[in-house]
Specification:
The chain is an alpha+beta fold and 195 residues long. It is 30% helix and 25% strand. It contains 6 helices and 7 strands. Strands 1-2-3-4-5-7-6 form a 7-stranded mixed β-sheet, sandwiched between helices. The chain starts with a strand and ends with a strand. The structure holds coenzyme A.
Length: 195
């Protein structure tokens, strides 16, 4: 399988939105398609307030705008020129991490510590279990190290299922990529890799 991992850039905004248009994910209800708009840089919240927008069309339009302005960040997996996977990873999402703190036990720490967070994966159903999420995660780690981050952090569930926020990937995948358990409580596990 010829797979290419590319960082999401403004030029890929339309292709990014198209991937969500045509790829079954989450509960797979057309009107609920997320376009991954929630997980984005703090600066876009200052301008826009919401983490969610009422209609699918609005979320699609916002996603394109957020990608173009660089506040929605991550990596895409291409196979034969077609997007088959997505990983949302961003180091400038304090607001999103603070939201996750309501569910995942993340201890407070020095603001000088630079953490890149992994917020979501979408792998096309027919392409799952072929190592694509792993390759996306490896790209996140590689670039975060080069960019001077101290850690990559992810928010997983002890028991992996397709329900209850498991779009952030299984603990086993993070362990295979050298992540350690940083904190755990009530079945929620924060995984971290020191760079
Ligand atoms: C969870 C998900 C990200 C995994 O992606 P993937 O490319 O299939 O994962 P990988 O092939 O890299 O698997 C890495 C490891 O994770 C674990 N793993 C992956 N899928 C698993 C599953 N369904 N059950 C148990 N373990 C699993 C395994 O340990 C696997 O290693 P192995 O295959 O050598 O055993 C993918 O299934 C997915 O995108 N699911 C849908 C998420 C979703 O709904 N997103 C939309 C949110 S709005």
């Amino acid at each position: 399988m010829e797979l290419e991992i590319r960082k999401l850039t403004p030029a890929l905004a339309e292709e990014y939105a198209h991937f969500f248009d045509v790829t079954p994910h989450d509960v797979n209800i057309e009107e609920q398609k997320c376009y991954c708009v929630t997980w984005r840089s703090d600066a876009s919240y200052e301008a826009d307030g919401n983490h969610w927008f009422p209609t699918r069309e609005e979320r699609r339009e916002k996603a394109i705008r957020f990608v173009r302005e660089g506040s929605l960040q991550g990596y895409l997996a291409f196979r034969d020129g077609e997007i088959v996977g997505w990983c949302n990873a961003n180091g400038d999402c304090r607001r999103c991490v603070d939201y996750l703190r309501m569910f995942w036990p993340i201890p407070a720490e020095d603001a000088a510590v630079r953490v890149k967070s992994v917020f979501c994966f979408v792998i096309a159903p027919q392409m799952q279990r072929r190592g694509i999420a792993t390759k996306l995660l490896e790209a996140v780690v590689r670039d975060a190290a080069a960019e001077g981050y101290d850690y990559v952090e992810a928010y997983a569930n002890e028991v992996f299922s397709y329900e209850d926020h498991d779009f952030r990937g299984p603990v086993a995948m993070y362990e295979k990529c050298g992540f350690c358990r940083y904190a755990a409580q009530d079945g929620r596990v924060v995984m971290r890799k020191k760079l």
